[in-house]
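anyone else get weird line breaks when pasting these?? whatever heres mine. first is seq + tokens for prot A
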Amino acid sequence: MPLISRKRIAQLSRDNRAIVRVCSWIVGVSVVLALFISVVTPNEEPEEFSEEKTKELIEKIESLVKLHEDSKERAAVVAAWKEGDREKIIQLLADPETRKEFHPGELMDIRTDIRDFPGLFVETLCYEWELLTSIYVLPALFAGAIWFLILMPFWEVTRTRLIACLVAFALGIFSASLTLVAVMLQERLHGFSENSDDTVLVQLVFWIAGVGMREETLKLLCFVPVAIWLVRRKDDTEALILAAMVGLGFAFQENIGYFSGSFDDFETIGRLTTANPLHFCLTGIAGLYFYRMLVRKFHGMEEFLFSFIAVVVIHGVYDAMISTPQLAGGGFISFLLIAVIGYQYFDRLREKMEIAGSAQRISPLGVFVLGTAALTCLILITSSTYLSFAPALGNFFAAIGNSIPIAFAFISRFRDF
């Protein structure tokens, strides 16, 4: 017999006072633990990293790079690459030892340049697998789990639905790999890429017709097999949640890539409240209308096309607002876009929510607040292993401050559930 019943857990998740108390304990314990770790762990202050040490480090890196570039196997591939000898490159890279001389990203560039598309696909999968088996999968998994648990109370969880969720999530991860292939073809092969020297209008076209279009198209493509399965079940709630799971899988894989290339551990919090909901809400809405079109045997195609175009445009405009230097002051608009698309998705989900048995389900609000607090505090603790306490605590409060507006937008939406 469990120590605490499912109904009691559901009640506690709806008790605002209990949530506040638990959050206070989490923050308090985390701050004390972070202080202790920063004291017992030798952290080198930035000012102590002298110019001499910096120069020494650069020399070591340059020597390692030179040694790496001078290897016989690598030199042979690079020479063939410069000559454009496709067959020779493919032959050389068939040797596993030669492949080890290159970073997966380099192999993707080479395969793209010589138009070895099957090889590019394989290299992309290898690169994505390397990310999936890295330490950076942990914060991405934590962030994804929070949204996964938030979505579960909107329906009655069954074994079939859980399996469908896992399949949809895996398809979302696969869609991220397909997107990476599309990036190489679009940007490296055909030169359709971001250029900060372009006008704002040209850059906006890139973010909408390039980034937004390819990501939303490939996520929806990977939702197709799930949508076909759903046609026989005729359940809008399942369509909304399973389409969102594809988007969440995409965001999960994308997050790993961002975390692996970032020096800011607290970026996890930002992406928890921005990229994650953006991806699964957009895919959830587009997926719902696509599923409905299939159920109606392609009647209502206009509704699907309108929703899909809207999703692509919103995605592209959001990316432009956070990436284009000339639009650097558009933070409010990007926040507004996430809030609007989040409301659109959760309003639809609320309309289709399965009411029966909802009293025994956990509260989305409780999951969001406790999950965000736990993730933020966990990052505070881990960052204190290499930062002194003051900078770690400063980053902690900065991350909270930056996330407050969008967090309250979701809190206000979950409050009524």
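and prot B, same format (seq, then tokens)
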Amino acid sequence: MSDSFIPPSYAPKLNLYDTQKAIGLLKRLFEDTLGGSLNLRRVSAPLFVEASTGLNDDLNGVERPVSFDIPAAGRDAQVVHSLAKWKRLALHRYQFSVGEGLYTDMNAIRRDEEPDNLHSVYVDQWDWEKVLAPRDRNEDYLKETVRTIVECICQTQATLRAMFPQLLSLPLVERQVTFVTAQELEDRWPDLSAKEREDAWVKDHPTTFLMGIGGALKSGRPHDGRAPDYDDWALNGDILVWNPVLERAFELSSMGIRVSPESLDRQLTLAGCDDRRSLPFHRMLLSGELPLTIGGGIGQSRLCMFFLGKAHIGEVQASLWPEGMAEAARQCLSKAHYLAKALCAIPGVSLRYPGEYFHEFVTELPRVPEVLEALEQHGILGGLPVEGGILWCATEKVSRAVLDETAAVVKEVLSK
């Protein structure tokens, strides 16, 4: 199942249809709020760009783009990884002024992504970019923009909770943003991995902007990879929140003030990418033809996961997954409902909660100690005793025969 997992006691807050309704509302609300707050106008974005332009983002430098030829045009194209560089060129071509910006509904394919709870080969995000005055190319402006985006997130969550009361059990996003650098985290926890540092910090600081990503830290290693030709590594970062469902730090946005001609020149050399200097986009940037900008990407599926309390990205988007991962999920769901139906057919047994559930559920039933003892005598690991009932769990690994035997043992005990 790759690195995917289902948290203990996980139960979806919304059923399938309400999930789709909430996703549609969430996307409309957030992009309107973001556009108004940052003075952004929506523009149409390309699904693919010409391979020779240098416009496609190189991400960590090892991901392979999906490439294809267009015979009628006599050109080779690449499906975008993101639109960080394209947006900056668009601001130039569309003649946006200082203080104005754009946002797009970006769809991408990242073929080398390792699917898990948070990652898919299909990527959907709001990509945004805004023209800066030279005086605003500083850390204070970056931080103020982060606070504005977090406020947009909080406003969207408030409306969703009003429309879908099932979401009220999820915690509110912390409006107060804590700012910390990747170097500060490495200094504090030098023996932890980058992701472990994030988890340790964000658990106590549930809305964090982690700054300074891409350049080498004192250890000689970067906190995480970042292409050298869009963010300035000294003026960028990730918006992280604490995810209570997955109990880990959860990235919602990667963003930053973009490279100037000077910082691009420096970062290309540091990254060993001097060969890019001859590409059309990079020539324009190095010569000062492109505007100074700030921008980023905000994950649509990530935001949906977080707001709707979902455990896996596959619950909020359509993509392709390793067959073992998808089949295991189907088996968990099917067997849990099979067991619940068999148990609730026994007089005296009923579901405690009528809502949606995945692989765990609680039944009301009498004589809990006797039931669990009888199951143990039959070599069956029973559920967890709770007040007045049992919390059951059925995974893909348990056979139908064991489920049938479980129900038979419970029926025998309660019929005495």
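btw re prot B: The chain has a mean pLDDT of 91. The longest strand covers residues 231-243.
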